[in-house]
């Protein structure tokens, strides 16, 4: 299940304080915020900027540059379909098309019932078992369309 805690400025300040002494603290802070809240809330940007002596634009720039960071809250489960080379050669595009139809959501979108956010990603480190899919923090290999259906049904039984 993706992090879905409601926004809390106090909690965000604690998370920032816990990571601010790390070298190159910006990325660890953003990852920790997203892990907790499910996205980088707009309200987090000025807090991070002030704490690290950066401009808001600089923090915004980093959030938008890295595809890993989300600006809006995800569904209850995040489904990542790999479309990098090894997976492509094993039918990843067909699998992604299937996922899009099955969930009625394009990459970057969340299903109408809030159950799944679909994301297309580039390499999940599971190339030997392509095509690869990650649902929340669980990695799956050699995923066929039928297996994709079974895995998503397992997370959210109809
Ligand atoms: S290319 Fe898909 S997991 Fe590496």
TrEMBL record:
Annotated keywords: 2Fe-2S, Iron, Iron-sulfur, Metal-binding
Cofactor(s) the record lists: [2Fe-2S] cluster
Keyword set includes Disulfide bond: no
GO MF annotation list: 2 iron, 2 sulfur cluster binding; metal ion binding; oxidoreductase activity
Note accompanying the cofactor annotation: Binds 1 [2Fe-2S] cluster.
Presence of keyword Acetylation: no
Binding, [2Fe-2S] cluster: 82, 87, 123, 127
Family matches, as CDD domains: TRX_Fd_NuoE_FDH_gamma (cd03081)
InterPro entries referenced in this protein's UniProt entry, alphabetically: NADP_DH_HndA-like, NuoE-like, NuoE_N, Thioredoxin-like_sf
Name of one Pfam family that matches: 2Fe-2S_thioredx
Matching NCBIfam families: PRK05988.1
Record family assignment: Belongs to the complex I 24 kDa subunit family.
PANTHER family: NADH-QUINONE OXIDOREDUCTASE, E SUBUNIT, POTENTIAL NAD-REDUCING HYDROGENASE SUBUNIT
Name this protein carries in UniProt: NAD-dependent formate dehydrogenase gamma subunit
Organism: Caenispirillum salinarum AK4
